[in-house]
Each structure stands twice: as C-alpha cells, then as structure tokens.
Amino acid sequence: MAFCQSNYPQPYGGGYGYNPFGGYSGYPPQNFGGGYSYSAYNVNQYQQQPPPQQFPPGFMPAPQMNMIRAPPPMGLISQEEMDEEPEDDDEEEDEEDEEEVEESRNTRKTIKKNIKKKVKATEKINEKVQEDPSILEQYRDMYAAELQKRFELYGTLEPTEGTIKPLDTYSNEDPVFLYTLETEEFELEKWDPEYDCIYLKNAMDGAGTNEEAIINVITTRSNDQRQKLKKQYKTSYGLDLIEELESELSGDFKEAVMAMFVKPAEFDAWCIQEAIYGLGTDESVLIEILTSRTNAQIHELREAYPDVVSPNRKTSENQIEQDIEDDTSGCFKQFLISAVQLSQRDILNSIERETSGDFETGLHALVQNIRCRPMYFAQRLKWCMEGLGTEDRDLIRLIVSRSEIDLVQIKSCFLQLTNKTLWQWILEDTSGDYRHLLCAIVGKN
C-alpha cells in the first residue's frame, strides 16, 4: 500500500501534533460521544457479578453448588440473611502491643468470619433447595447464562480483571472530592463528570499544568466514564477537552493520555491503520490485535475502521479486508482476512480451512499461545522494554488496551516470566509524567 499520511480533523482530536516516532501520524481519533450503553470492549458492564471459579484450560465441570459465585436466584436468600453476621465463638486473645501482630490477628478473624458467613449462606441455600428442588435448576440456568456472558465478552471462561474500574462513589481521599471540598459543601456522592471537569479545568488553567491531577482522574475512571468527561467538558465550557489536553501536554505522556480517551474499538482500528499505512507493515501489531480480540470485539473494530481510516468520506464496509489484502501477501494475508470475517467461526477452524502444512502447524501454535492471553501479553510487554531503548507506542497500546480487561492476570504472568513486577520494569525503563501515568495504570502490587 502506498505511503499515506494519517490526518484526523479536529472533531476527531487528531491533527498532526507531536509524534515521537517521527513524521506521518496524528493521534487516535476522538469523538465527542457521551459514552455508550453497550460495547463488546466495555468489560466493566458485567462487573457486578463476580467471575466463576477458575478451572484448568479446556476443563468444563458440571455446575455444583459449592463452585457458583454468582448471587443466589431472586428470593432464594434475602439480603438480610446474606449480610447476617455469624457468631464469633473465638476466645478472646491476650492483648499485644505490637502493631503487626494485632493486624495479623484482625486479618485472621476477618477471614474466619467470612468463611463462617459463606458456610451459613450455603446451609441456607441447601435448606431452601430441599424445600423446592426447582431452585437448583434455576441456579444452574443462572450459572450457565453467566458463563455464556463471560465467554462472549472475554473469549475465555477463566477469570480476568482489569486494573482500572469505574468509579461509583467518590472516596474521602479522591483528589476531586478534596478539591471540591475547598470551594463548597460537598458530601460523598456518586461520581459526577461535572465535578471531574471542574477539577481538570483548574489543572490546565494559568501558567503550567498540573499533570498529577490529570493522571489521578484518567487512571481512576473507566473508558466509558472518560467518554462522558469529553461530552461534559464541551457542555460546561464550550471547549474540546482533547484539544485542551493536547495543547498542554507533550511527548510520550501526551500520546498515552490521548490513547486513554479513545473508545477501545476505535483505538484498535487506529492501531491497525497505523500498522498498515506506515512505512512498511507492522505484522506483529496485526497479529496481536486480530488474534486476541473476541468475535464481538472484532465485529465492533471492523465497523469502526472505515470512519477511522477516512472520517470525511464514505468507504467500503470491507475496508479493513481491502487494506490487509493490499498490504500483505500469501498465507499470512489469508490468515489475517479470516481473522476479521464477520462470521462467528473459530479462528482455529479458519486456519485448518485456509492453510496447510508447516504454516498451518505454526499458526495453530501461535493461536494456542495467544489464547493464553495474559502470558502472551506479558511476553509482548517484556519485548517492548528489554534491551536498548523502549518500544513506547507498543507499550502504550498494550497497557491501555488491556487496562480494563485482564491487566491483573498479565501482571501476574509478567512476574512469573521475569521475576520482577511490571510496575518495576516500567519504573526503570521510562521517565517523567509518562512513567507516572503508566505506573498508575498498572498499579504497584
């Protein structure tokens, strides 16, 4: 494909701007949309129900009462019964002065109390099941529905967790709460984008910029909430939040902040465009995105791609396939095109149908590896930072795109892979506000 300059107009927040990688690229597209009610990327929409218990890959046990972690069916156990405190039959222990010993004792008591609480809840469930056996079938249906929901969202039945979650209610330590408290009577209440926008506006007013304030907000609000911040900022001040941030920030820090404000499907589409339209083709980015996203996410990505590539004119619905076909060749082209097809076929079946021989064997191994997503992404993160220099754009993409999906599991795999935490690697490999932002997303523990 011919060399082509990405040029996102102002409504998309792109422009030409700073590009630490030299030259041709603007920033990911930014829309003023006020969030979205459903998205295959919006993993936090199911957060109110804990994930089912983790099992070995490929193992699908029959539903049993002791492994279901979803709430009981409506009416099975009242909230009062669930919250009822068990009797504490532990004997009083002698008082000790050491703070650590006291903390350890309290932790043990809390664990024992929680165990008793769960045992008591299980006993109540069993009693009600004895009274009405149909409840067990209801519970199994709920469990199956939860598994189906998780599989559609994550592409796996194994538990996943992001490091960034939606903010429901301001805490008394939240910087926005503390700032608002200085100017008005403010009680702890549910998250409100207007308070965040006032805080961000103050952070960018006057001489200098309070980068710490920007980091505090964007790393403790979900992507869906950040979309609402863009809309609220425009409503409150008549200004584009993205343009304001772009004028105040610089370097890799600015690029990472811009990425945090892009809807996930559009961000993936933009990353694919950058991999194709730049000088040469970045095959590793194409493989990473197209083989690690769920079918539903690929569907959204594919719908977003035409507007990202050409926001000012209508393009073909098959634009992503056309671009891949123009920029790649042979079996690799067939593999990538299969990965973006809208039919909900399993990618391994596509490999068997479209390829053969050693190439088929190699792709099978690749996909099986990527299906253990956390370890795959841990390996990609290690590659970004090992040796001389840092692949900053890849590092930003990996951390931002997984921050609300499975970054907790990726961190665990990274520690297993390198014997050092991801937070420590970032701390040693980056600098300034850019380092502070990435470390805040990842979390120290």
Automatic annotation (TrEMBL):
<feature type="region of interest" description="Disordered">
    <location>
        <begin position="47"/>
        <end position="109"/>
    </location>
</feature>
<keyword id="KW-0106">Calcium</keyword>
<keyword id="KW-0041">Annexin</keyword>
<dbReference type="InterPro" id="IPR018252">
    <property type="entry name" value="Annexin_repeat_CS"/>
</dbReference>
<dbReference type="InterPro" id="IPR001464">
    <property type="entry name" value="Annexin"/>
</dbReference>
<protein>
    <recommendedName>
        <fullName>Annexin</fullName>
    </recommendedName>
</protein>
<dbReference type="Pfam" id="PF00191">
    <property type="entry name" value="Annexin"/>
</dbReference>
<feature type="compositionally biased region" description="Pro residues">
    <location>
        <begin position="49"/>
        <end position="60"/>
    </location>
</feature>
<feature type="compositionally biased region" description="Acidic residues">
    <location>
        <begin position="80"/>
        <end position="102"/>
    </location>
</feature>
<dbReference type="InterPro" id="IPR037104">
    <property type="entry name" value="Annexin_sf"/>
</dbReference>
<keyword id="KW-0677">Repeat</keyword>
<keyword id="KW-0111">Calcium/phospholipid-binding</keyword>
<dbReference type="InterPro" id="IPR018502">
    <property type="entry name" value="Annexin_repeat"/>
</dbReference>
<comment type="similarity">
    <text>Belongs to the annexin family.</text>
</comment>
